[in-house]
Input
Amino acid sequence: MVGRCDPIDQGHIRDRTLEAMGAKALVRKVARESVAERWGIRPGDRLLSLNGNRLRDVFDYQLLIQEPELELLMQRDGNLITLHILKEESQDLGIEFENSLFDGVKKCNSNCLFCFVDQMPNGLRRTLYFKDDDYRLSFLHGNFITLNNLTEEEAERIVKFRISPLYVSLHSTSPQVRSFLMGTSRTEHGLRMLQYLDCQGVSTNIQIVLCPGINDGTVLESTLADLLFKYNHINTVGIVPVARGNHFHGHPRIVNCTPEKAGELIETVERWQQAFRAKRGRNTVFAADEFFMLARKPFPERTYYDHFEQLENGIGLCRLFMDEAEAYLEKMLSQARIGGGAEKRAKMTIRAPSLPLLIVTGIAAKPVLSEVLQKVLSIYQMDVELLAVPNSSLGPRITVTGLLFGKDIIEALSSSDCAKRVVLLPDIIFNSYGRTLDGMSLHELKENTGLSIRVVRSEGKAFVQSIPGRNTVGGKRDHDLSLESDTGKTATMVKSKEEIAHVCHQH
Output
């Protein structure tokens, strides 16, 4: 490999030029023994241009580094450096960036009547008040976008790079209903963009936030019929209930779903699953877990959810959690034998050495965890309690665990008799920097409660293993505790460097 590093007099390039060249490509990590490490690139450097091209995002970067000859313009400690590198064609440089987008995030300019971001109280993490509508984050992280602000140039780039699948907030195929719900006249543009992308082979995962009396009933029937008969590349359709919390100040027609409405929706989805199966060979449309909780109906079997493509939208999480836990328990039980190695499966009781436990969860997840816990305690002889924490910050109708505030947890722990118990917290209450919605770290939770607290990954197998203390991550640094980001998407949703490179290789 041949390379050259030339410093440039910064006086030749003004600060505004740096801004114009996209100086936000901040290097976060450099792989060991990589091309980048060998040529002195290090964390904290900024990549300003590659072969003279401004970089908008990781797509531009991955496309351009396929070339065997590269010229990188870097900024380090206020100085400019050029690197001239020869490498193998398609060889990766080994750079990871702080952010995937170098030119900023496109902001949503819709005014959805039910927007949950608008319901956030004051004093939370700054990023929680930002509403993005960027197609790149849709592909990379599974963020739902409206397409209302998508330009023709961006649509062409999606098609050119085959950036697929995208996650789209649709709510209705009726322009009038969609405009009313989204508070903008640009919803017809979004529908046209959806049709264009579908015609070009871009697949989409659709979200419908169900607002009783507005986009349910005949409106929903019409929407699902349109998606079945007028589009060819709709991958999934996830229907989730609208959430109206304590800080809702929107339109009075926005009301929460009732158990009766939830039951009706479940029946509607099952009927349309039959239609989608007949035409496309898969169920395609799904009801969120919360509908089954509201209607007090059992969760469907795995086959209901196809490939669980909308897990991050709260669709199939409970079924997957229970199945993972059940599979692990079955594996353990199958190892227990009676009578000198006989093949007969038997229940065994293990006295685990752990201290008494208190497992923290949200209101919605308590029945699921209770069912799994009963099976776990049939194997492990332990003292374990569940504590379902009400969401006093956002309101009693907000029952999911991932939206619990640190102060909600502190309040619940202070009012319960748990002084001698080890507290297990689910990792989904923390973001990727180890902070709760109201900015508390694990360390601060420990200090405020004076309790021994461990963090458990929110997976069925991990939950079972955590009971005897075999799978907790409380010993890690606070900012390593969770895989969730401020977008609400876990790391399983984030596209890997290889997946992004594959997109660019197709081009």
